[in-house]
Amino acid sequence: MNQKAVILVNTGTPDQPTASAVRRYLSEFLGDGRVITLPYLGRKMLVNGIIVPFRAPKSARLYQKVWTEKGSPLLWISKSLREKVQQRLGNEYEVITAMRYGKPSLKKVLTEAEKKKFSEIILLPLFPQYASSTSGSIIDLAMSLISKWNVIPQVKVMGQFYDQPGFIRCFADKAKEMQPEKYQHIIFSYHSLPLSHVNATHQNKDCSHFNCTKEVNPENAFCYHATCYATTRMIAKQLNLSPDQYSTAFQSRFSKNWLSPFADVAIREKAEQGIKSLLVVSPSFVTDCLETIVEIGEEYRDIFLENGGEVFNWTQSLNDSEQWAEVLATMVKHDNS
Predict the structure, then answer these.
(1) Are 21 and 62 a contacting pair, CB within 8 Å?
(2) Which end of the chain has fewer CB atoms within 10 angstroms, the N or the C?
(3) 10 & 132 share domain
(4) pLDDT for residue 1
């Protein structure tokens, strides 16, 4: 077969918004050694004995808020995006949706891909900024599985794309739909990470040694912290924002030892400082999910309004937009030209 496989991989989602389904999903997700970097036995005891039993019921209630007749937004949007990218790439490629955790599992997708004997496997983790716990985990698993094949075709991994002009334009255009000039301040919110994960990308030294909030350089090229700040600067430039009109923050933290400033704290502080209108843009998520729809759209809105703010909005992600599908197809074609 001369056809090439393009595998679009996202984090994943539970099968149903129930405590039991969420428990299975969280056990797989948090059991990943690249997500929680403890030795195997300690990680299993922490995840299955403490975190999952307490977190699953609460998370299930949150998933119920975002679940639609089509199911999980992350899954049905991903399937719709796949169809649109397929239309643009044509018969030379087969575009496939996969999830690192949950279904359709990356393991099952690659098992089927081996049977089809594609001439090339193109792996595209849908994470603009590299992190070991996201893109790194996907690449690690895929390479481990493919290495066991009898016939290994050409394999390409498409890495971080935070600096791709098309990606930046997509997010800037999404923000423009919200008329950013009407807001006193804009916060660019990214998923936080443990500081230990970030520091591991540059010899276990912290970001202060590498000017990560100001520039991307050869020493911090794969530093999530550095590439998030770079993403903010590029989108802000497209929006003609001055430095005092925007800031960068990090959400979804688990402890104080994660990347900061924390988004919830930053939002509360802006309200307390007298900012009356706030817009949040989340360029680490290319698909809307629990973290954007509920955490930003509901929880952060409430924080802002309860502390003196008056107008709060957030930009939807790129999802299955025609523009984003075109950018992804162009990235694949360009990488294979």
Answers:
(1) no
(2) C
(3) yes
(4) 63
